[in-house]
Amino acid sequence: MRLSPIVPKAVTSTTGVTGDVAATGATGQTAMARPFEFQSMLQSALDQVQTFEARADEAARQLVVGKAEDIHQVVIASEKATLGLQLAIAVRNKVLEAYLEIMRMQV
């Protein structure tokens, strides 16, 4: 199942918000800049998990053919990949839970 990306909309009303924070946000950036920063950070983390998995696969391949120098390094690479995947799944579950909670809110 493929999900289409969420496209952020620009803030058109700042009712109830005072000062410069309404236009630029607390960090001094526009409201449109922050979602893309989160997206790039999340993409970078997923790329790193994929790199860990590739290293673990290569280490396991080296172990099978007898070229691995140290079995400890193979186990460490495997555990890094496992922990990275578990963290990615936990983050995905939290984001999905937050999205569902927002969708349940009554306006």
Topology:
Blueprint: H1 21-24, H2 33-65, H3 71-104
Describe this protein's structure.
The protein has a domain at 37-104. The model is unreliable at 17-25 (pLDDT under 50). The radius of gyration is 21 Å and the shape is elongated. The chain contains 3 helices and no strands. By secondary structure, it is mainly α.
Keywords for this entry:
mainly alpha, elongated
- In N-to-C order, the SSE pattern is HHH
Low-confidence spans: 17-25
Strand portion, in percent? Answer: under 5%
Overall average residue pLDDT: 80
Could you give the distance between the termini?
A: 30 Å
Structural class: mainly alpha
Major beta sheet, specifics? none
Number of strands: 0
- The number of helices is 3
Judging from the principal axes of the Cα atoms, what is the shape? Answer: elongated
Assembly status: single chain
**Rg from C-alpha positions?**
21 Å
Question: Could you give a short description of this structure?
Answer:
With 107 residues, the chain is an all-alpha fold. It has helices spanning 21-24, 33-65, 71-104.
